[in-house]
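ESCALATION

Customer reports they have been waiting on this structure for their group meeting. Please prioritize. Original submission:
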Amino acid sequence: MRLAEMSPRRSAMARGTPNTLPRCSCMEAKPDRQLKVGLALLAVLVGFGLTRTVADSLYAWGVIPHYHQPVLNVYTLGVLITASALILWERRRLPQFHIDGLVLGIVILAPVLQWAYGLPFRGFDVVPEAYLSPWWPKLAVDAALLALLVALRAKAPRPGPVAWAFVAGALVFVAAGLVGALTAPPGGIDPRSLPMTTLTFLVVLTRWATYEELIMVVFLWGYLRLLGWRDERILIAQTVLFMLFHIFLIPGRPAVFLIVVPATALVAGLLAWKNRSAAPSMVVYALMSIFVSF
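Update from on-call: job pushed to the front of the queue and completed.
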């Protein structure tokens, strides 16, 4: 067949015209660039977690006399801003990172619920002020994330039945505690009562559970999977990192570090892996923290 008889598309390919190759290279570069930026933000996210771990460990081992609140504030804001940037950056493939509508609800809306839930507890001496006062920087970051998600028309995947069951169970638990708080005599609430337990659960859920699970079972897991890791290996890796984040427990509570911490990481990881949602993992983290506190 002569060159003149070939179709225009095949003729262009035969002549080596630049109609196809540049387009292919660009299409291949976009996912590579997206992955590189995501990995860089993940490194920042893990870095904030390790910074807090160092501060906690120095305090637990008596190297520093008191805990530095600015370190905690930097950790909290750093994780929130970086995680929000990652959610926006990966908004088109949120299922890859175990993010569904319930996860976004816990990250963005649950802090407002926790603040409103604490209103009936005002006046009780046993309730820490930090449980009742809203932290405005966090609420500002959450509001900005919500506004940008709406503006960019990002769509969260629908949660599965297991994720709904965990969140529904948590809401029933919290509602039972609220009834107890509303019917308690003034100043007569017990630190280990159901109302205080549910308030602590909400505080842990909207803070430490959210921050650490965003690192472990959301972005670390998702990016390792994108790098070709098997889920079984990722489960082990995130468990090791979770234990590293809690080495400050070794001096005072070695049994918790050796048993409860890896058990929590494994259960949370399995739930996220099998259900493709980090919502059950966040609930489990908060429940395990309550269990340890008793």
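Sent to customer with the following note: The chain has one domain: 36-293.
Escalation resolved.
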